[in-house]
Amino acid sequence: MKAKNPITQFGELFERAKAAGEPGDVTRCALATAGSDGAPAVRMVLLKGFDEHGFVFYTNYGSRKALELEENPRAALCFHWLSIEEQVRVEGPVARVSEAESDAYWAGRSRLSRLGAWASKQSQPLGSRGELLRRFAEAELRYPVRPVPRPAFWGGYRLEPERIEFWSGKAHRLHDRRVYTRREGGWSVARLFP
Description:
Helix content: 25-40%
CATH topology: Pnp Oxidase, Chain A
Number of strands: 10
Number of domains: 1
Radius of gyration: 19 Å
Strand content: 35-45%
Shape: elongated
Largest sheet: 10 strands, antiparallel
Number of helices: 5
CATH superfamily: Electron Transport, Fmn-binding Protein, Chain A
Low-confidence stretches: none
Distance between the termini: 17 Å
């Protein structure tokens, strides 16, 4: 079996899912993390970029996911595109992206999303929805016309893939599974039983 670059393969599936009209946002994926206690936690995030260096998502650095990534800088992503019956699992170490990369992504966000980031103390207890709306209104007053700067507590992470598994749904539960493992100088590939 000839190994194909898994990042290229991921990109082809990503485009197929978009073309197939995947319901919702084709960039959505489950992100699994674990803190120093080893207890797993999973939530949905949006993929904001990918290339040979990894898979990028953004968050508040005070969020539960960010705190867990600081304690245990390893994570897993899972994409499931029902429209094309494909699933991709990505595992590896995680590190913050550069300030410049976070700034570049921030510049493309809508003004209201920027204000929302300032308003939210992500993952912290919230007394009422009114408190969140008040904080949003305060952010609007603080930045009425001028550009909304990126807060120091907000930015991106890149998961550098060490293992990527592709699952293709087939009849009679005889699914295709291939796992790519990063080795020095490239990727090794193996088939797995479904």
